[in-house]
Amino acid sequence: MHLKPRQPVPALDLETVGGGRWSLAAEQAERFTMIVFYRGLHCPVCRRYTSELNGMIDEFTKRGVAVVLASTDGRERAEQAKTQWGLPALTVAYGLSIDAARQWGLYVSTGRGMTSAGVEEPPLFAEPGLIIVKPDRTLYWSWISTMPFARPHFNEIAQAIDLVVSKDYPARGEA
What we know:
The chain is of the alpha+beta class. Helices cover about 30% and strands about 20% of the residues.
């Protein structure tokens, strides 16, 4: 599926590490909600990436941006990621179905065994994506990849949010 800027995004309602649920419909972000889809516990690139975000969470909070991490991992693997990767400041959601991942435009890969992190890849999992949604639940910004490499830098995203807010910059790519 291909998401289109300025159009509604699919529903997203997932369980979170530590109990509870996270729902896009219930999110009350002042400016944006940033959903960071990560590949799962098996991904060493995701570990570095989410750790960078954990260290910058206050930068997004002060900009009115709510943040959630989500993956197709189950509860146990998501708990391990939150603990072993040192992500105390982040909401880590889990159990994204493969069908839901595809609805969000994420690419899906088949597992290929043990990774360099020493963790087995699941039979199927979603590749990474970063989606920024406006409070009206429409797509503002997206980055979707077929590979774990070359991701958007969170400091650049924070600076870009400053710009788009100050200039009332519209979502692009709708044509």
